[in-house]
């Protein structure tokens, strides 16, 4: 249950963000392979995939001239060509890659490859619907929908009509709007953000002298803790608030100095959106429509959501677009379960946009053409340069935040930029590579679609532009010898730092690093383990994935790893003390439960001699029994609450749930009583006359229980579990 519990909450905290460590590799190679003959695709998914392993063509094709993919016949497949990069009958470049950087991907081959990858993932991961678009050299070379946007009534995904929620890809429009204000001279990126915010939502000092600057928002370094549960998404429209009200009421704590480190912040992106709205004098949604969507011809993209008209909120999504929204799904008990609509309007600049694959194709063309499309300049050269320039200096392969855009490491040493996005059900990714003049967008409408969304852009680059590579990469003997310098438990800095949500952040926000016997670095997070091998000297702390192009960079001090970042750079994982390890609190919880059960059981199992006691011992016994009941009740309630977390939506929408609040209250009282139990210890051992006092065994048992309860209470206090009022 522990791994499942951690994975569920990692998904909750990753919402409106780049996906978690286990899904971070945008370039992991994969070959779509058919399932065994006996396997059947799940209900309502497309038929079994047709894998792409080879296509015969006599010579390289010229750059495609059509703006849309041509109809293709079923590709010719050679059973012998099953290894990545082994394609019979196809010419290759002198480097061993199938295509040179300046050569366009043939449309028919691209479509066949994407068909195989997507349909394989849909069958394997139970994804109801997928939408994809690929652009290259100013043309749309693939635009396709797979599966269903709705199962009841049945409605297929249409790449030009079906709107998918794009999650944090929404932020890229916010950064464009911000850069347009910077270009116009109305906002300075090195100025405090408070200069551009209404007074009621300005960032407070909270003990930090340095102000949060505009540039800090663009590289996610304002220093805010990350809180999401119970307010980032809403399913009850009556709870949706205006952006400014949300920013005032959900103000996070500042936990580090601005600019010190990146830690992905939805709140920071929302502040940026409010700033451009305040400076321009326009509501955020209208501003984006007027300055980006309409000029770019993105007629099926909007930050608005379908809802009744409500004072203080933006007008709802147009009826024709609302009718084409995809439903959201999760796979449960062997079937697709439809989820209610996810309202994100309260923090719109961070993630409320919806779009089609067709519109996102235009957007990628705009990005690749430095802000110009159809002869219209959406943003200027200064913004174009910013989106290709990292703010932070980072090791090779680690995102340095291109003024809000994510820098992607792609196969073959190539790079790209874009953004990934996740809501509770929609998982999306957009990557553009100026090196290849290529852009890939993919979105899925089921919570299991993250692996496909994150891997497809890299798979396309790997398949067509990278020579065959020997995977997996080999380990390092030197790393095996220095395993202790890297192994340990590391805790991420993108989390809540107090209250019950802080407790959840500690429980699921860490990563276990170990070294395998064959010299590979293994990182386990969110229930998944990925392996890496050193790239260069170990003193540099840089590692590359054994089967992909993603990187991990460690900060080394005196030859020992102190912290690390993954390729996305959305947070830093730092070595954590033993008391912050989930295993410690789980062990203490188990021992406490056993001790409490033994205390209750002792009431029925003691003989007459063992009931002799002094008055102080009688009071201590009553206190110990009360504590036992409270501890058992709290643990039972926590188990009840955890059993309902298989659907992350229940956690997000129902936070903080009554069982968890009552459990925290019980723990608080039990912890307070623990202090009394410890104070009584000397009197317990003094006792009275031997015949009127506890036996030595019972005194020892009481002492152990009192000390255990005291230690557990202290650890729970550090974890934030003793604050039922601050969910």
Summarize the structure.
This protein has 727 residues and is of the alpha+beta class. It is built from 21 helices and 21 strands.
What does this structure look like?
- There is one protein chain.
- It is built from 21 helices and 21 strands.
- By secondary structure, it is of the alpha+beta class.
- α2 runs antiparallel to α12 and α3 (170-183) packs across α6 (266-280).
- 35% of the residues lie in helices and 15% in strands.
- The relative contact order is 0.13.
- Among the domains are: 477-578; 582-719, no CATH class.
- The two termini are 23 Å apart.
Indicate the low-confidence ranges by residue numbers: 1-9, 20-24, 26-91
**Average predicted local confidence, pLDDT:** 87
Percent range for helical residues?
A: 25-40%
Shape: globular
**Rg calculated over all Cα atoms:** 28 Å
Which features would summarize this protein structure in a list?
disordered N terminus; 7-stranded antiparallel β-sheet; about 725 residues; alpha+beta
């Amino acid at each position: 249950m522990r791994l499942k519990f951690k994975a569920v909450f990692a998904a909750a905290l990753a919402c409106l963000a780049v996906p978690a460590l286990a899904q971070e590799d945008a370039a992991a190679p994969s070959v779509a392979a058919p399932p065994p003959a006996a396997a059947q695709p799940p209900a309502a998914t497309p038929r079994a995939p047709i894998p792409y392993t080879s296509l015969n063509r006599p010579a390289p094709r010229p750059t495609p001239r059509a703006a849309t993919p041509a109809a293709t016949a079923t590709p010719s497949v050679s059973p012998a060509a099953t290894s990545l990069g082994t394609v019979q009958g196809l010419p290759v470049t002198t480097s061993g890659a199938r295509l040179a950087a300046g050569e366009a991907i043939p449309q028919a081959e691209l479509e066949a490859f994407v068909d195989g990858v997507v349909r394989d993932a849909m069958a394997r991961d139970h994804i109801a619907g997928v939408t994809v678009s690929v652009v290259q050299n100013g043309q749309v070379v693939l635009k396709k929908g797979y599966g269903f946007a709705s199962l009841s009534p049945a409605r297929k995904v249409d790449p030009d009509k079906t709107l998918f929620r794009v999650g944090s890809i929404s932020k890229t429009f916010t950064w464009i709007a911000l850069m347009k204000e910077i270009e116009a001279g109305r906002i300075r990126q090195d100025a405090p953000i408070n200069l551009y915010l209404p007074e009621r939502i300005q960032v407070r000092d909270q003990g930090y002298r340095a102000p949060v600057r505009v540039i800090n928002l663009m590289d996610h370094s304002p220093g805010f803790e990350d809180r999401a549960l119970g307010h980032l998404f809403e399913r009850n429209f009556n709870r949706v608030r205006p952006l400014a009200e949300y920013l005032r009421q959900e103000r996070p704590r500042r936990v580090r100095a601005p600019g010190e480190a990146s830690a992905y912040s939805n709140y920071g992106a929302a502040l940026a959106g409010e700033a451009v709205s305040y400076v321009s004098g326009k509501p955020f949604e209208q501003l984006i429509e007027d300055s980006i969507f309409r000029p770019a011809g993105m007629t099926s993209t909007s930050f608005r959501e379908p809802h009744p008209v409500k004072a203080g909120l933006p007008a709802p999504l147009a009826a024709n677009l609302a009718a084409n929204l995809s439903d959201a799904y999760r796979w449960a008990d062997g079937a697709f379960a439809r989820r209610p609509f996810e309202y994100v309007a309260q923090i719109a600049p961070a993630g409320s946009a919806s779009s089609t694959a067709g519109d996102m194709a235009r957007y990628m063309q705009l990005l690749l053409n430095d802000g110009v499309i159809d002869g219209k300049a959406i943003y200027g050269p200064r913004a174009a340069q910013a989106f290709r320039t990292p703010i932070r200096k980072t090791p090779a392969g680690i995102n340095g935040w291109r003024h809000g855009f994510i820098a992607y490491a792609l196969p073959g040493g190539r790079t790209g930029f874009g953004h990934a996005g996740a809501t509770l059900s929609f998982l999306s990714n957009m990557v553009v590579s100026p090196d290849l003049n290529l852009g890939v967008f993919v979105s899925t409408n089921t919570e299991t679609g993250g692996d496909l969304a994150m891997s497809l852009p890299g798979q396309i680059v790997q398949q067509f532009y990278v020579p065959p590579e020997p995977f997996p990469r080999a380990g390092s003997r030197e790393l095996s010898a220095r395993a202790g310098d890297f192994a340990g438990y590391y805790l991420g800095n993108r989390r809540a730092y107090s209250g019950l949500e802080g407790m959840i952040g500690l429980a699921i926000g860490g990563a276990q690093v170990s070294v395998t016997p064959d010299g590979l670095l293994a990182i386990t997070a969110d229930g998944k383990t990925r392996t890496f091998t050193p790239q260069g000297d170990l003193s540099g702390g840089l590692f590359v994935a054994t089967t992909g192009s993603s990187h991990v960079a460690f900060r080394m001090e005196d030859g020992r790893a102190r912290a690390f970042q993954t390729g996305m750079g959305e947070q830093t994982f730092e070595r954590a003390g033993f008391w912050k390890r989930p295993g410690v609190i789980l062990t203490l919880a188990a021992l406490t439960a056993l001790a409490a059960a033994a205390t209750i059981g002792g009431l029925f199992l003691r003989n007459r001699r063992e009931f002799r006691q002094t008055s102080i011992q009688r009071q201590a016994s009553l206190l110990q029994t009360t504590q036992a009941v409270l501890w058992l009740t709290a643990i039972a309630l926590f188990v009840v609450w955890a059993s309902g977390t298989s659907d992350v939506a229940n956690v997000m929408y129902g936070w903080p749930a009554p069982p968890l609040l009552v459990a925290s209250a019980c723990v608080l009282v039990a912890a307070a009583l623990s202090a009394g139990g410890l104070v009584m210890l000397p009197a317990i051992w003094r006792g009275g006359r031997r015949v009127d006092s506890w036996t030595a065994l019972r005194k020892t048992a009481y002492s152990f229980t009192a000390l255990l309860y005291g230690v557990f209470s202290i650890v729970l206090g550090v974890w934030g579990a003793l604050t039922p009022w601050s969910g």
